[in-house]
Write a structure and sequence with these properties.
two-stranded antiparallel sheet, 4-stranded parallel beta sheet, single chain, 4 helices, alpha/beta, globular
């Protein structure tokens, strides 16, 4: 296995179109971040701050007109809000089909749920990973390393 040096990547990836497809729902729950409960609206504002308001397309799933208006006020003119009531898996399919129909083949697409909190350099981490691999995820959670079900024989997903 080839070891990858952190911080060394193809900087030309910054020139490619980069869009976030975010699933947002009134039915989502707040998440916990370092023992602090974080509301989905605060998570959304973090996403806008990290990735830029014009780089986010929202799949608004099972949500109110008030939520639509709140989101619309916070995204840029190049962003889309696509309303659906397809549920979790159906809204992902909606996002995927929309990205395939509206983006160039070499564009970078980041599919995102509304319970991820990002550090300021998250887009650079994605681009660095994509310069070495075809697929990157920023999901790293404690449940991958610990028992989720005390009765399970599986002790962790990563050893």
């Amino acid at each position: 296995m080839k070891m990858v040096k952190t911080g060394h990547y193809d900087k030309s990836l910054h020139d490619k179109e980069f869009k976030v497809y975010l699933r947002y729902s009134d039915h989502s729950r707040p998440c916990w971040y370092f023992n602090k409960r974080v509301d989905t609206k605060d998570i959304f504002l973090n996403t806008v701050k990290v990735f830029g308001s014009n780089n986010i397309n929202i799949i608004l799933d099972n949500s109110s007109k008030e939520t639509y208006n709140w989101l619309k006020e916070r995204v840029g003119s190049e962003s889309k809000i696509i309303e659906t009531s397809a549920g979790n898996a159906g809204s992902f399919i909606t996002a995927m089909l929309n990205a395939m129909d509206n983006m160039e083949d070499d564009s970078i697409v980041y599919f995102l749920e509304d319970d991820y909190i990002h550090k300021p350099n998250s887009s650079d981490v994605i681009l660095e990973g994509l310069s070495h691999f075809d697929y990157v995820t920023l999901l790293d959670s404690f449940y991958k390393y610990t028992d989720r079900d005390p009765d399970s024989k599986l002790k962790s997903y990563i050893k």
